[in-house]
């Protein structure tokens, strides 16, 4: 199985930047997709961005041009660089990893890290 630990959340003013990190451990060689989701109280968790093991990225429209997802396969770590933050980016951010766990694919989630953007 795969375990994920996020770090890097915090409080930032609107227009500022933060970088989130998510380190994977366990069966890391079986990881394919890694990504970031976010959730606010009363709302469903939504995709922010994801990245394949080959480096192909995908972003939600509301973060395109502001957020960048990257991945260091040697360190089994995925990053989310967040620039030009807005108050509406305030949420709990969760890292996820999709990996092959015989006989099928499985998904792991991190514990979440809070990002708060003040106006």
Task: Flag low-confidence runs.
Answer: none
Q: What about the largest sheet?
A: 7 strands, mixed
The number of distinct helices, counting runs of at least 4 residues, comes to: 0
Mean pLDDT: 96
The count of β-strands is 11
Shape: globular
Sequence of secondary-structure elements: EEEEEEEEEEE
Strand content: over 45%
- The CA-CA distance between the termini, in Å, is 40 Å
Q: Please give the radius of gyration in angstroms.
A: 14 Å
Give the helix level as a range of percent.
under 10%
- Structural class, from secondary structure content? mainly beta
Notes on the protein architecture:
The chain has 119 residues and is mainly β. It has strands at 2-7, 10-13, 18-26, 31-39, 46-51, 57-59, 67-72, 77-82, 91-101, 104-109, 113-118. The strands form two sheets. Strands 2, 4, 5, 6, 9, 10 and 11 form a seven-stranded mixed sheet that branches. A hairpin with a 2-residue loop joins strand 9 and strand 10. The model has no long low-confidence stretch (mean pLDDT 96).
